[in-house]
Amino acid sequence: MQSPVRWGILGTARITRRVAPAIQSAPAAKLIAIASRSEEKAKAWAEKYECPQIVESYEQLLERDDVDVVYIPLPPHLHAEWTIKAAQAGKHVLCEKPLALNALEAETMVNACQQAGVCFEEGVMWYHHPRATQIRDILNQGRLGEIRRVTSAFSFPWQSSVEPSEEYRFKQEQGGGSLMDLGWYCVGASLWTLGMLPEEVFGREVLDGSVDESFSGWMRFANGAEAAFDCSRNMTSRRWIEIAGTEGSIVCDDFTRPWQEEKTRFWIHDAQGNAEVVNCEAATQETCLIENFSQRILTGQLDNQQSLGLKTQQVMDRLLKSAKSKRNENEF
Ligand SMILES: NC(=O)C1=CN([C@@H]2O[C@H](COP(=O)(O)OP(=O)(O)OC[C@H]3O[C@@H](n4cnc5c(N)ncnc54)[C@H](OP(=O)(O)O)[C@@H]3O)[C@@H](O)[C@H]2O)C=CC1
Ligand SMILES: O=C1CO[C@H](CO)[C@@H](O)[C@@H]1O
């Protein structure tokens, strides 16, 4: 495939305000077209982000020969349908988190991409930031000893211009809830750190209507390590992770969205209690994701079966099942 990789976007989602400039600025990527259900929205969007083409429907975007990869930032209940259609149209797919409503759907998506010979990636961005590489290097060097525990939190007080009745995050059937929206990052970070699926999981939810407003989870791994997290859309803003080993720990206070400027950093605490600040290379995580995925497409790295997104979704199912099993426990 020729560089740059040519990108199309399905829908004028809010998150595109961060991803469109990333496609424009990543050296290996080029923004070709936006598709929307509304011509008016597409026109306004294309003008704002200097996108050369607008397309009247998602189907028409998938039919275009000048698009190599599609970005799918639709509500989660539409991810499987459009990922499979895109793969069948021969397009590589960057699909937003949560990948799907459940693991079965996510497996179908990954399999469709595998069969079509296209690359598949999830929209979690921090994995692609240079800080993640620095943390991985420290883990690989064994500076923390054996990793015993990963603890993480992602919460914020929900505010949006969107009417709650229109918001997918409040609808269970559309893939809403704090676990799917925010806990996704904590579960993904735990699997990213420990490199395996948990043997045992335990989940507890605080329900608001049909979805969890807050969720606490715990996982135990075959090597004895544990991971614990909490997430909420009704709490102050918290986005931190701690990776604790037998000889030291790493703490990172903004793991889901590294500061874009020189402020991005993390701390290493040694066994004596000394703390070292590690300052990281400044980078925009959205651009890192777009560039990395474009490079993966250019170099034909087609293996999707080890997708961290798929594993995260498998753990989501188990956590939700655990929480649901306790729903009626306190009823008399
Ligand atoms: N990786 C990250 O950092 C982030 C990821 N996300 C993820 O991105 C995805 C999009 O989130 P967000 O930006 O809040 O999405 P929005 O609700 O802002 O937009 C979703 C878009 O999907 C299109 N759409 C198609 N069908 C429907 C439908 N039935 N109902 C509503 N919208 C529809 C619309 O585009 P149109 O009308 O133009 O066709 C709409 O603009 C989610 O999966 C979310 O979890 C969100 C924020 C950050
Ligand atoms: O993925 C996401 C990143 O964080 C947001 C909150 O700040 C979420 O709502 C969103 O879906």
From TrEMBL:
<dbReference type="InterPro" id="IPR036291">
    <property type="entry name" value="NAD(P)-bd_dom_sf"/>
</dbReference>
<dbReference type="InterPro" id="IPR055170">
    <property type="entry name" value="GFO_IDH_MocA-like_dom"/>
</dbReference>
<feature type="domain" description="Gfo/Idh/MocA-like oxidoreductase N-terminal">
    <location>
        <begin position="5"/>
        <end position="121"/>
    </location>
</feature>
<protein>
    <submittedName>
        <fullName>1,5-anhydro-D-fructose reductase</fullName>
        <ecNumber>1.1.1.292</ecNumber>
    </submittedName>
</protein>
<dbReference type="Pfam" id="PF22725">
    <property type="entry name" value="GFO_IDH_MocA_C3"/>
</dbReference>
<dbReference type="GO" id="GO:0033712">
    <property type="term" value="F:1,5-anhydro-D-fructose reductase (1,5-anhydro-D-mannitol-forming) activity"/>
</dbReference>
<dbReference type="Pfam" id="PF01408">
    <property type="entry name" value="GFO_IDH_MocA"/>
</dbReference>
<feature type="domain" description="GFO/IDH/MocA-like oxidoreductase">
    <location>
        <begin position="134"/>
        <end position="251"/>
    </location>
</feature>
<keyword id="KW-0560">Oxidoreductase</keyword>
<dbReference type="GO" id="GO:0000166">
    <property type="term" value="F:nucleotide binding"/>
</dbReference>
<dbReference type="InterPro" id="IPR000683">
    <property type="entry name" value="Gfo/Idh/MocA-like_OxRdtase_N"/>
</dbReference>
